[in-house]
Every structure is written in structure tokens, then in C-alpha cells.
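Model it.
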Amino acid sequence: MTHLTELYDVFSPEDARQAGAQTRRELHLSADLRRPRPAADWETSAAGLLLQLWHAEGPGLLARLGEAGPWVYAPDVATLQDLGRAYERLVRSVWTAGAPPAAGGSLLERLVSQGGVPVVTTAPLSDQEEAFWALAARVASQRREARTAGVWP
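Modeled.
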């Protein structure tokens, strides 16, 4: 469940446009990529959003973590692995607890819809999801700061 189900290299504006065209129908892509970047005025189309990410954060990897998992944009494989481990902790917590909380549009809800687990409210699972999104937000913020400082990978 926490394996990569899709991976795209976004190393140029053309790569961003191509990845956007290939993922344009993905239900959660735009929301997942905008969630850790709330302060910015992001495009809603996949192609436009990925092009903006390339300009704001530099080259990266677009990946979906697991069948129900989030879409992430990471600068390198090591960061992608960090995000994957954070998501894996969430998935393991969900299946250990037996039931994730219901929260509109959350990763936990997506796991429920995939696995057919009953929905209840448990704070530690919500905390695990927030920890994942906090890590994604730190990565995005660090990339924007590096780009602003003129530091590219």
C-alpha cells in the first residue's frame, strides 16, 4: 500500500507540462500538491500547477504514494523516501487501529474507501496524517526558500 504507484521526472518545464497532461484526470493531485503550500496562489489544472511548482521549487519528482495515497512533489529520491516513510507510518497506524477517522478529503478517508474499514474518530491517527502534511510543507517551504536564494539542486 505504501509503494509508489506513479512516478514522473519533472526536470524541465516540458516535463512539467507532460506530467500534467498525463495526470490531468487524477482526482486528488491538485489538492494534494496545494495542501502543503497554502500561502501560494496555485493553478488548479495539473499542467499549470506542475509548471508553477517547477518554477517555484525547482526540478523534482512527482509521485503518488500507494493506491490511495497522496501525490507529492519532492526534490530528490531521499526526500521522496522520507515522505514515503511518513505515509507508511500513517498506513500502519490505520491498519493497527482498525479504523481511521472521518475527515473531509483526508488521506485517512481515502484509505477507508480503499480498504473498506469502518470509520471512527481517533486523535492519534489524525496526528499521524498531520505529521505527514507538516513534513510535506517543510519540504516545499525549504525548496521555495532555496529557489528564492538562487540555490538550485
